[in-house]
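Quick illustration, no need to memorize.
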Amino acid sequence: MEAKLISQKLYLEKRFFYAFTAIVILFIVGFIVPSFFAIAKLLLFALLFFLVIDILIIFFYKKGVKAKRILPEKLSNGDENPIDISLKNYYPFKISTEIIDEIPFQFQKRDFSIAVSLHPNTEKTIQYQLRPTERGEYHFGRLLVYVKSPLQLIAKRFDFNDKQMLPTYPSFIQLRKFDLMAMAYRNMYGIKKVRRIGHTMEFEQIKEYVLGDDIRTINWKATAKRNQLMVNQFQDEKAQPIYSIIDKGRVMKMPFNGLSLLDYAINSTLVISNITLKKGDKAGIATFSKKIENRVVAERRSSQMNLILEALYNIKTDFKESDFGILYGDIKRNIKQRSLLFLYTNFETLDGLDRQLAYLQSIAKNHVLVVIFFENTELDALVKKEVHDVKEIYHQTIAEKFIFEKKLIVKELKRRGVYSVLTKPENLTVDVINKYLEFKARGVI
């Protein structure tokens, strides 16, 4: 859509006020030294003359400049996104401009401007970067271009109505970034790759019995009709269901580097789902707190990534304490086939884990459960900080206690037969990919 020019206004530049101030000072001095009074009058007339010339020059060309904002289809949350502005100069002389783009309020930048000079009758594309930290709708406002006159005594404002809305999705830029990592993965030392093929009850055909066939698959009706042993042949299932389950409770609202833990989990889910599909497995997702929402059943189809992306688009925390009992009941009812479950949540203390441990153990009996929770990087920084008084020693001791409890949580989960990943928020995606590829290599799934 073309940006429509809605108004043009004239503004006096700083250079005019500086010159005018100097002339006023000369007039004041002129009361003491009369010769300065005549010089001040001459300079005032010269300033007014050049001001009129500047106005005539800059207003003689009605079209002046043309500006347009060029946006991508969507923004990638947590990443640097390029925004382009196309600017064309219709004046027959070089101009200096200041571009003010009314970017969405979520960025909280009220002094955003770009200075650009442009040769006569030329077009230029200016690019800047925006890093959103929230998913949802981002509304861009007007595009303002201030064109300075040749003598830079005045500036003409061109106001373009270029209002646009841009959706911000989970980090799809990371998909391309981590694809190469998954393909370049090699087995770690000491891990033997084993191919384990799951057996489903999906019927393929009826065939004659041969020595070695499972007698439990004999089709007695077909045997009676053909008067020879016939067996059912079932299709071997190679694709395993991989579910990413995201906790939407209040524990996931904690922010790190501008993004909440929920946003880190969503970005990681998008990447691991993409890699899962490329590795031949089925990808699915779900979220929970007081109820199960945003469910996408694990499938392997061309539209699966679009379904997952749309489901993750507008997920928000509900600030409630999550009910792991509801999660266990839903998994037991709806996920019948043994699956790999990545559970994104956060435990700060052993007491917090103990309340949910029975449910986690029950889930792990029928599925491969990986509990993913986060290191508090703020505490790490506090522990490494040099202390100077008793108060700081106390704070550092408490921080060390919380860090040690995280390690105890890992040991407790392992003792109860539950896999875990303790990671820094910025390393989340890499660590989850490594865990998935490790399981694939070891034949765990």
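The domain at 173-193+238-442 is CATH 3.40.50.410 (Rossmann fold).
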